[in-house]
Amino acid sequence: MLEVSEKRHFTHHLYESIKEANLPIGEMSEVEDKQDLLKKLLSGETILLLDKQTKALSASTKGWRDRGVQETTSESVIRGPKEAFTETIRTNTALLRRKIKDPNLRVEAKTIGRKTCTDIAVVYLEGTAEKEVLDQVKERLNQIDIDAVLESGYIEEFIQDAQYSPFPTVYNSEKPDAIAGGILEGRVAILIDGTPNVLLVPALFVNFMQSSEDYYQRADIGTLVRLLRLFCFSVALFMPSLYIAFTTFHQEMIPPPLLISLASQREGVPFPAFVEALMMELTFEVLREAGVRLPKPVGSAVSIVGALVLGQSAVQAGLVSPAMVIVVAITAISSFVFPAYNMAISIRILRFPLMILAATFGLFGIILGMIAMVFHLCSLQSFGKPYMAPLAPMIGKDQKDVLIRLPHWGLLSRPSFFTKSDQKRVDSKSKER
Amino acid sequence: MYMNIYLKAITLAVCLLLLAGCWNSKELDDLGIVVAVGIDKTEDDQFLLVTQVINPSEIATDAPTTRPPVSIYETTGDSIFEAFRNMTEKSPRKMYLSQLRVLVIGNRLAEEGILPSLDIFYRDHEFRTAFFVTIAKDTGVKDLLKVLTPYEKIPANKLMHSMESVQKSLGSSKGIVIDELIAQILSKGQNPVLPGLLIEGDAEIGTAIENIEKIDAPTQLRVDHLAVMKEDRVIGWLTPDESKGLNYITGDMESTTVSYPCDSEGLVSVEVLRTDSSSKAKFEDRTPSISIELDLEGNVGELNCPIDLTKAESIETINGDVEKKVKQKMEAAIKAAQEDFGSDIFGFGSLIQRKNPDYWKTVEKDWNSHFKELKVEIQVKAQIRRKGNSTQPITIEE
Questions:
Q1: What secondary structure does DSSP assign to A279-291, as a single string?
Q2: Would residue A209 count as lying in a domain?
Q3: Mind listing the domains of chain B with CATH numbers?
Q4: CB distance A263–B126 less than 8 Å?
Q5: Contacts of residue B20 in chain A, CB cutoff 8 Å?
Q6: If A77 and its partner were Cys, which of A150, A213, A315, B49 is the partner (CB 3.0–4.6 Å)?
């Protein structure tokens, strides 16, 4: 009897000493549950089992091939860091840590996915990020019970506020500087293992109009570019519907020389303007989609077919009017101006209902559509923050970094709609000479 | 329950979309864009309607054919509206009237009274009120609208631009839009004037494309001087000088020229750059009179007589001569209106009405005869600002 107890005592002693001192490996943890043990084993950890011990030791010895940090492909910039997140979550947290060396930067890990056990990290600045937002993020993440998470899109759909809105309420980016900027504003980043696209919440309408490069170029350039994006937003959204409305309902509003020119182009076009526009817009969407999917060597073939065959030949054959091709082209180019691809998609989708409204009611229809859109936008929320802030509700002191961008020495405080605490950004003395 | 409400809402919305049936939607290639309309009375007392419709593919094209840039349609009807609808028998497209530039009124109708026939142009929602109303002088409206014009492919545009440039730099005519015209016809204290349009050359030759193939187009359209109206009837025409005088008085003179022979020989021409006219009604013992003050600024435009412009007196002399010359024109206009036509085309009646409404009530009914007796004082102040690039005329030394 005594022998047994002595043996047990000995192994316990051994266990403790291994755990505390004898294994030079970081991230040792104890496992008591068989399910847990399997999970750890399957995610690449080494399990150390000792005879007569109810607990096992697990050492984090994960290792895998990864892609390495490369240049971003979907959000290219002229000036500013070009590195992009990778598929490995540890690399990604390291990329963020490298940018923000603040002791308050918190990385909270969890796993989601019954089968995939995907690692997820919630990254935020303690003391800067608002507690309500943080609680909401954690609560929404904890609620998720799904078998597999392969990309951040899975998580986004579970945690976004408006499930049926065409507008995105969760921001995503693959650029560490953009995400670090968001974290510094007091927002919360969600990193998901296996994808370079990192989520950032809360996400407001104006965030999708801004690019991290706005802050790297000089302030006046940044401001003008933002205004240009806003202009392109309206062009991308309204141009085809305005064309339809003006040419089929409000010819009296077109200056006479332009009307004559448009009328002469339409002579002999067999379709109504609406059908013509719809056809060309759809063709463009098809081309765009094909351009994304096609292997690179075939890509040039698509542009030739698209530009020459569909553009020029369609006009020469008299199927569409040249003005319509111009309208569609301007619209298409404008829709690529947005730094956020998901916002560009929503605008492209909304264009179609607006075109239908324009073809049915003319300008009246467009205005109706616009009013409905504004109502909808103002009713949206992202993690408790009004989506149109700081424009609606209007927050005067935050206008410094919305449509315009003041120089960095003028951006004294963090945007108040993201955080109320730790607002100070720049000491007003920094510019004194 | 919720589904039910959504379903109802969607059904209603879809119905709305379909039932609206693209109300009022017209494709551009279904429009006959009318740029000029001519109206007149026929001999059997019907309305004659002539429209000039553009042929867009001929105007904006890389490869012009021999088709004319505009076409003419002519119909008659008991009313103008009916005549417009009768036009569908001839024209493949419905007339689209928003881009109308010029309305030409024929002689017969102008003498009979134009007010009844203006109603449709004022009432119909399709018309913009920015088109000029004109009178076809000594010619039929159809002949006038049939002439193809050189340089400007659309004859109606030519007419409109000519009228604008005449008003802007000559001042012997002016464009009147329908709002102004109707307001002036209805006003008891003012009678309207209308610009005339003329054909120069043979009307028949002007209709053919050959007309514009020649460097000197044999048949051309011209903006003429102003027609004097009494209420809504044309009763006569002003001369070019009288027309200018009228524009000076009403303040519609933008820029013009004043030329006169100088004491010795040759001519002085002054470019009038800016005029500012103010008319006031005055009362002395219940007798109204009008005083007109005209300030005028100008440049020396052309000089052929031996005047030394470096001297201040010579500028003073020119100022005085210009004042005299302009005053003559204004007096000529007033004389013509008072003696020849007995029609207050200056709006003096309205000035008196504003000054003394009680007096106006006593003369309102018979204003045109009171107008004949009205005393008008004119004061002109001319100022020459610039002499141009030379101080002396170009002459051969003897």
A1: HHHHHHHHHHHHH
A2: no
A3: 27-237 (no CATH), 240-398 (3.30.300.210)
A4: no
A5: 360-361
A6: A213
Distance in angstroms (rounded) separating the CA atoms of residues A245 and A248: 6
- The three-point CA angle A260-A265-A269 to 5° equals 130
| 8 Å CB contact of A251 and B54 | no
Decide if A323 touches B, using CB distance below 8 A.
Answer: no
Nearest to A266 among B23, B29, B101 (CB): B29
Mutation site for A-interface testing, chosen from B25, B26, B61, B100 by largest number of A Cβ within 10 Å: B25
Full residue range of the structural domain in which residue A417 is found: 401-433
Does the interface predicted TM-score (ipTM) exceed 0.85? Answer: no
Residue A273 Cα, gap to closest chain B Cα (Å)? 7
Q: Residue A18 contacts by C-beta under 8 Å, 6 or more apart in sequence?
A: A48, A50, A57
B128 CB neighbours in chain A (<8 A) are: 252
Contact flag A356-B28 (C-beta cutoff 8 Å): no
The DSSP call for residue A311 is I
Q: Out of B17, B26, B60, name the one closest to residue A248 (CB).
A: B26
Which DSSP symbol is given to A208?
G
**Separation of alpha carbons B153 and A247, rounded Å:** 23
Divide the 433 residues of chain A into consecutive groups of 10 and give the mean pLDDT of each group. Answer: 68 78 76 85 84 82 82 88 92 93 93 90 93 93 94 93 91 94 94 94 92 92 93 94 93 89 87 90 87 80 76 84 91 90 90 91 91 94 91 88 90 86 84 77
Question: Is position A82 within any domain?
Answer: no
